[in-house]
Design a protein that fits this description.
Mean pLDDT: 86
Helix content: under 10%
Low-confidence stretches: 18-31
Order of helices and strands: HEEEEEEEEEEEEEEEEEEEEEEEEEEEE
Radius of gyration: 19 Å
Largest sheet: 4 strands, antiparallel
Number of helices: 1
Shape: globular
Distance between the termini: 52 Å
Structural class: mainly beta
Number of strands: 28
Strand content: 35-45%
Length: about 325
């Protein structure tokens, strides 16, 4: 992909993001809250958060019981874009205006940390260190658990637009965008790798060792999964036999997560998700359709949850069957 093609792709992406922001702002205050995000800090403590930042569902017993809590002082614009649970008391979210909010009292109240244009999603290595890719040629970084952030730009970067970030240590990490970017010094310097797989754009990445990892995104209006066995220096596309019909004609894999070396999954902006329980050797579809964008989380190879606009579901057989959770 030459520089002219890169700029054309960037212009299309920026236009799409501006349209999303415009319509989320015009929509104004929304009374109803749809649950869209789920995260666990350990096997027992997990939160489910609504896209409009009105309610949180919380569990402290591994998902047997979920308690509904109304959020205070989360003045987001256009709803929540992404959410990270740091520990049992602390969480961070980003709204559709790229404002970052932080809570330290189990979600009861939230403090606005700042506005960082273009921030799309965050990754935390531990309770202190976190990063976030931006759509504006760089990334943000925190060393104090999200209490403050500093912005960094990649100089003379015509490729721009980063979303997913993953660090396996304080020094080695990757960013997904137009290609994959690698750092060996904690983000001071980055090297771009052209995957050679012809993808349009990559939205996230994850590694289970310093050598083996995956990246996800869009290729020819469909979700694409790429795999690397050499630390991200070379990539190959993973061929998937997907039978679930997407909820829209153009869709992408948006997020990839692993809870250990064996269990991982991929979410999409459609009604398709895939799961592995053998370290990525085989991937299979998650057998559920929530009518669009979903977020799933598995705490082991059997027990998991799926969050969609029409409800919260749980599985106890690795996603073969699902039951809707009744929320009071």
């Amino acid at each position: 992909m030459d520089e002219i093609e890169v700029r054309e792709v960037l212009m299309k992406r920026v236009f799409l993001m501006l349209v999303i922001v415009f319509f989320t702002e015009v929509a104004g205050e929304i009374v109803e809250d749809k649950y869209l995000f789920i995260d666990f800090v350990n096997d027992r403590c997990g939160w489910i958060m609504g896209g409009n930042g009105i309610y949180i569902l919380k569990t402290i017993d591994g998902g047997r019981i979920w308690n509904k809590v109304k959020i205070k002082k989360l003045r987001s614009v256009g709803g929540i874009r992404t959410f990270n649970l740091i520990d049992e008391k602390t969480a961070i979210c980003v709204d559709h205006r790229s404002q970052i909010f932080r809570t330290t009292d189990r979600g009861m109240t939230w403090k606005r940390i700042g506005h960082f244009p273009g921030v799309w999603k965050l990754f935390f290595l531990d309770k202190r260190k976190g990063w976030g890719g931006t759509l504006l040629d760089g990334y943000i970084q925190t060393d104090n658990g999200g209490r403050s952030w500093r912005e960094k730009r990649l100089i003379d970067n015509v490729y721009g637009m980063f979303q997913g970030v993953y660090f396996i240590s304080e020094k080695k990490g990757w960013m997904a965008g137009l290609g994959v970017w690698i750092t060996e010094d904690g983000g001071e310097n980055w090297k771009r790798i052209d995957t050679g797989c012809g993808e349009d754009y990559l939205l996230d990445c994850a590694f289970i060792s310093d050598k083996r990892g995956w990246a996800v995104g869009e290729k020819e209006k469909r979700g694409v999964l790429l795999k690397s066995e050499d630390g991200g220096l070379t990539w190959e596309e993973v061929r998937l036999d997907l039978r679930q019909k997407a909820s829209h004609n153009s869709w992408a894999f948006t997020e990839i997560k692993f809870i250990n070396d064996m269990v991982g999954w991929v979410n999409s902006d459609s009604s398709i998700a895939i799961l592995t329980t053998d370290g990525g050797k085989e991937w299979r579809e998650v057998n559920i359709d929530v009518g669009g964008e979903m977020d799933i989380y598995f705490k082991n190879d059997k027990e998991g949850w799926c969050i969609g606009r029409d409800g919260v579901y749980e599985t106890h057989d690795g996603g073969a069957s699902w039951a809707r959770i009744r929320i009071e």
